[in-house]
Amino acid sequence: MRAGSNRLESGKIALLSAGHLIHDAYPAILAPLIPLLKAKLGLSNALAGTLAVVAAVGGVLQIGLLDLDVPLAGHLVAAAALGVLGLPAVVVLDVALTLRLRARAALVPILALPVLMPQLIAATNASAAALAGEGPTSLAWSALLLAMAVVYGAIGLTIVPTAIE
To answer: How far is the CA of 16 from the CAs of 1, 4, 20, 51, in angstroms?
Structure first.
């Protein structure tokens, strides 16, 4: 590795780290501000929700804009998208189950973590395989993520209406 290219890689890593900091801080700062932004700017729920999508897209753009050497960038994006797809159904299901409890704010993460652990493991393995250039392995883990999202969605659609009543 040349000395000049080492400096370039350090610059890319610093830029990626700064982007990651902004990407992680944005939702944490934005979430409490959404009701205020909706009231002050007259935003609809759909428009306010797109702010979260902008934050997610920022993370994906870090890979493309920095021209990092990711052997299977499409597989990595698919693994990230499929990994996120099953999260809302599990969280909504846990919120619906704890709706009438006082300690629901503490119980929802406790209930969600064991259910989401297989999804977190599959997303980690799919991402690692995509970064290593192992296409079939990445696709297999991504297919498992899709199956989990479908199962979580079906369970959520059948149980949540009953739990709310």
So the answer is: 20, 19, 6, 21
Question: What does pTM read for this prediction?
Answer: 0.60
* CA 100/CA 152 separation, integer angstroms: 22
Judged on CB neighbours under 10 Å (0-12, 13-18, 19+), 146 is middle
The answer, yes or no, to whether residue 156 has pLDDT greater than 70, is yes
Integer Cα distance of 95 and 122 in angstroms: 24
Q: Where are the alpha helices (DSSP H) in 42-134?
A: 45-65, 73-85, 87-97, 104-132
Alpha-carbon separation of residue 155 from 90, 98, 104, 160 (angstroms): 9, 16, 20, 8
Burial class (CB in 10 A: 0-12, 13-18, 19+), 16: middle
Residue 5 per-residue DSSP state: H
**pLDDT reported for residue 139:** 92
